[in-house]
Design goal:
The protein is an all-alpha fold. The chain has a domain of 140 residues: Tetracycline Repressor, domain 2, CATH 1.10.357.10. It is built from 10 helices and no strands. The radius of gyration is 19 Å and the shape is elongated. The N and C termini lie far apart (55 Å).
Length: 202
């Protein structure tokens, strides 16, 4: 392994560890020492890549969480002409993930968690979080517009408003699942989300 690859691997391990700790706990409740210990590195190694905890947090948002948004929402909808069916497919994927990874049910959405915790505490955090939500909403809006053109989405809907509503529905749903931790509640929310999406068809 080259020195460059080792450096990239160390940085990636720091980010993955920080994301895991922020997700299962909180940003404020996680110390640099915890990240260092769980990542199996020295404190000097962490500060070689990040000036401090805030910079590490920003990188988690811009790299780790953004990658999740792109993989889950942006890519699957990028060429969609039937976004309702594709969104229902994403819901199916979420249901599978919750069965395979119960920590999602317990700890919720890392983006939503950080938004709730940090948007009133740090403006740089807030702006980065806003950017991710905007990217998510833009992907939905473009897909809905393409669906209108293809005749798979109601022409009368406001694509921008509905895109925002879908993001709110998904984030609120994951928050309720996190609080309730009940499979029956998951099924109820899933059924309601599907019913809402079906109303968007012509």
């Amino acid at each position: 392994m080259t020195e460059t690859r080792q450096a990239e691997g160390t940085r990636a391990r720091i980010l993955e560890t920080a994301l895991d700790l922020f997700h299962k706990g909180s940003f404020k409740g996680t110390s640099i020492n915890q990240v260092v210990e769980q990542a199996g590195i020295t404190k000097g190694a962490l500060f070689h890549y990040f000036k401090g905890k805030n910079e590490l947090g920003y990188a988690v948002v811009e790299e780790c969480i953004q990658a999740q948004i792109i993989e889950t929402w942006v890519k699957p909808l990028a060429t969609s002409v039937d976004p309702i069916s594709d969104l229902i497919g994403i819901l199916d994927h979420f249901e599978e993930m919750m069965q395979e990874q119960p920590e999602i049910v317990e700890y919720g959405c890392p983006l939503n968690n950080l938004a709730q915790e940090m948007s009133t505490q740090d403006e740089d955090f807030r702006l980065r979080l806003v950017s991710l939500y905007q990217q998510w909403e833009t992907a939905l809006e473009k897909a809905l517009r393409a669906g209108k053109d293809a005749g798979t989405v109601k022409e009368s809907i406001d694509s921008e408003a509905v895109a925002s509503a879908i993001v709110a529905l998904m984030e609120g749903s994951i928050g309720l699942i996190k609080v309730n931790r009940d499979r029956g509640h998951i099924r109820k929310i899933d059924s309601g989300a599907r019913a809402f999406l079906e109303l968007l068809r012509p």
